Amino acid sequence: MDAQSFRPVAPVRLVVLVSGSGTNLQALIDAAADPAVDTPYEITAVGADRSGIEGLARAERAGIPTFVCRVKDYDSREEWDAALAEAAAAYAPDLVVSAGFMKVVGSRFLARFGGRFLNTHPALLPSFPGAHGVRDALAYGAKVTGCTVHFVDDGVDTGPVIAQRAVEVLDEDDESALHERIKEVERLLLVEVVVRIARHGYALEGPNMRRVRLGHE
Question: For the whole model, what pTM was predicted?
Answer without folding.
Answer: 0.94
